[in-house]
């Protein structure tokens, strides 16, 4: 447990209504240790296509809202599926809006991965996010392979992960890494 509150902003790489990546983030949200809060981002699918001509004073208001949430957060959680051996276009678009801004450098980040597959997207995200100077906390990495399972099986796995302390333990490691870095 950490001594101060930690606010986390969670980014989901899937826009699907029944997204397993999102369900994992929601399970983490419900398993937060007392000093940790998670807000799940809801704007990624609505961001305009990135265009460097629309940065600075021309930045779209929704991008400014997105960036402000990231600035407020002590750390980010990324839960992202693999599409065609890579990063889903909508998610990469969201990241591209942040590349030239000052919100993300040195921001701690943990992965929560909802599949037993997808190692290629994890490797690509690691490369992209490190290029953007985010600090990936490997010790907090969480993998819960619910993707592709029925709604009932997913709910059961998420419940067991919550009750066993798997989810809160990962969040605790992340919160401690954040506390140690500030
Ligand atoms: C367009 C598309 C491409 C995909 N490509 C891959 C892939 O290359 N490798 C993989 O492991 N899974 C792939 N998948 C499967 C998804 O990663 C899997 O369905 C995952 O559960 C989706 O995440 P979500 O449940 O959060 O939406 C693909 C799915 C879609 C829709």
TrEMBL record:
One GO location term (cellular component): cytosol
GO molecular function: FMN binding; oxidoreductase activity
Superkingdom in the source lineage: Bacteria
Ranges where the NADPH-dependent FMN reductase-like domain occurs: 8-141
InterPro entries registered for this protein in UniProt: Flavoprotein-like_sf, FMN_Rdtase-like_dom, NAD(P)H-dep_reductase
UniProt-listed PANTHER family: CHROMATE REDUCTASE, NAD(P)H-DEPENDENT FMN REDUCTASE LOT6
Protein's recorded name: NAD(P)H-dependent oxidoreductase
Species: Rhizobium lusitanum
Classification of source organism: Bacteria, Pseudomonadati, Pseudomonadota, Alphaproteobacteria, Hyphomicrobiales
């Amino acid at each position: 447990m950490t001594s101060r509150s930690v606010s986390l902003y969670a980014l989901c790489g899937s826009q699907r209504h029944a997204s397993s990546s999102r369900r994992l983030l929601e399970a983490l949200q419900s398993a937060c240790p007392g000093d940790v809060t998670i807000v799940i981002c809801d704007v990624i699918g609505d961001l305009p296509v990135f265009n460097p001509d629309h940065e600075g004073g021309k930045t779209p208001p929704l991008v400014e809202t997105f960036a402000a949430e990231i600035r407020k957060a002590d750390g980010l959680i990324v839960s992202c599926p693999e599409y065609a051996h890579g990063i889903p276009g909508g998610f990469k678009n969201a990241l591209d809006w942040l590349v030239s801004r000052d919100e993300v450098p040195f921001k701690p980040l943990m992965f929560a991965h909802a599949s037993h597959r997808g190692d290629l997207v994890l490797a690509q995200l690691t490369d992209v996010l490190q290029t953007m100077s985010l600090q990936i906390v490997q010790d907090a990495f969480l993998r819960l392979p619910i993707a592709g399972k029925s709604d009932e099986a997913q709910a059961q796995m998420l419940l067991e992960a919550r009750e066993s302390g798997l989810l809160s333990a990962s969040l605790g490691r992340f919160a401690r890494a954040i506390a140690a870095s500030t």
